Amino acid sequence: IDSLQVIPRFEEREFFEKARYQTDRMKLFSERIEAHDFRFEEWIEDQHLHCGRIDVMGLQLEMFRDKTYSRKPGDLKPMPQDMLRSAKQMFTIDSVRLMHSFMRYGEFVEKSSVPGVVYFDDLNLKMYNLCSKLPHPDPNYALKVILDAQVMGESRIDLDIVFPLHGNTHNFWINASSEE
């Protein structure tokens, strides 16, 4: 894909008024997206979507949340393992690489007159073993996320997260480090 852009239909004020509850408003642009080693035979034989690698270059993602609105009753965010288990389409993506990207998150809270914002630039992410066929029979099979980025143009952060994909576990492990 040469480029991808997602633009909200409504301006911020109208977007949140229509949503009525807390939610994220997102703007997204990516310079290029490439899929490698798509396995057509698996798709034809058993409708299992299998891709060896997806590369996303130059992603720019801006998210904003207005926390002056209440949360939707019963709105619980699922763990990554639960999101994979609930996927209607069976899929496997061996790896995803996000390269040279930028992400900004902001939120407005009741006790503030201006929104708080954090951003990450020169963001790179590698994700391995994205699979919806769960529980996985291999007890060592896990979704792995490796991220490095510059925080607010100041400090480098490195983050590794592991989500086991066997059984019905909700466990995960995080290792993180930052420059001084």
The SSE order reads: EHEEHEEHEEEEE
Q: What is the structural class?
A: mainly beta
Mean pLDDT level: 92
Radius of gyration, rounded? 18 Å
Low-pLDDT windows of residues: none
Shape: globular
User: Strand portion, in percent?
Assistant: over 45%
Number of strands: 10
Structure annotation, total helices: 3
Helix content: 10-25%
Ends: how far apart? 39 Å
Question: Sheet with the most strands?
Answer: 10 strands, mixed
Please outline what is shown here:
This protein is mainly beta. 12% of the residues lie in helices and 52% in strands. It contains three helices and ten strands, in the order E-H-E-E-H-E-E-H-E-E-E-E-E.
Q: What can you tell me about this protein's structure?
A:
This protein is mainly β. The protein is 12% helix and 52% strand. The protein contains 3 helices and 10 strands. Strands 1, 2, 3, 4, 5, 6, 7, 8, 9 and 10 form a 10-stranded mixed β-sheet that branches. The N and C termini lie far apart (39 Å).
